[in-house]
Amino acid sequence: MKTEFASIRWRERDVSIEYIRIAPERTHAPHIVFLHEGLGSVAMWKDFPQQFCDAGGYRGLVFSRPAYGQSTPRDEDERWDVDFMHRQAHEVLPAFFHAIDLHEKPWLFGHSDGGSIALLYAARFPHAVAGIVVLAPHLFVEDVTVANIEEARKAYETTDLPQRLGKYHDSADSAFWGWNRIWLHPPFRQWNIEAELDAIQCPVLAMQGIDDEYGTLEQIRGIARRVPQTQLVEIRDCGHSPHRDQPENVIVAALNFIEQNRSLQP
Predict the structure, then answer these.
(1) What is the CATH number of domain 3-261?
(2) Single pTM value for the model
(3) Residue 28's CB: how many other CB atoms inside 10 A?
(4) Are 244 and 209 in contact (CB under 8 A)?
(5) Tens of pLDDT, residues 102-127
């Protein structure tokens, strides 16, 4: 797969977005857009998007948000605010889709922060999405989430975590501190997107590990209470990254969901 770059204008500067296309020759197949976690990137997904698209005969699009992977890093003095995921969903994603001429309705496949961004995009642009699959998304901030993000900060400062993250990001500091500082910023404890989910009209599959160290099952159960067309999958022996802990279960559930809902769409 060839790495490509798209240029968008965001936060009053030009930003380069790293992305790869999977099987673009499958022109009539569903188009799956993968949205990575809070410390993720194109490389951090490893081969899961390829496996998933090959299993379903789909096309795929995998990209790194600004500050991650090979996309433009944060400026040293750039601090994200409480609305950072809203800005990704409402500003970056539409600009990126426009830059690469993606005008069809994609299926969004988001993990963790990427899952929250997928939900926010589907709520703001309800007619622009065929459906969404979210793994361990965040709807609100829980004590367990903050506690483990605090532990991640300590690990970043005292272990080889920067070197390990450096395998997946041109600037590990850009990726880590952008994510870590806002999640530990006291006003962020009030962040909550539950009410916004009422606007979602597309089908939703929400999956989460029962042993998720970054959130309780109330995160996905909250989606089902707000969005009646939601299917829930709670996965045993699984932590915060279902696609790494239980990839076969995730692939089977997501493929069944997409195929069932494709047959219902015009």
Answers:
(1) 3.40.50.1820
(2) 0.97
(3) 6
(4) no
(5) 989 999 999 999 999 999 999 999 99
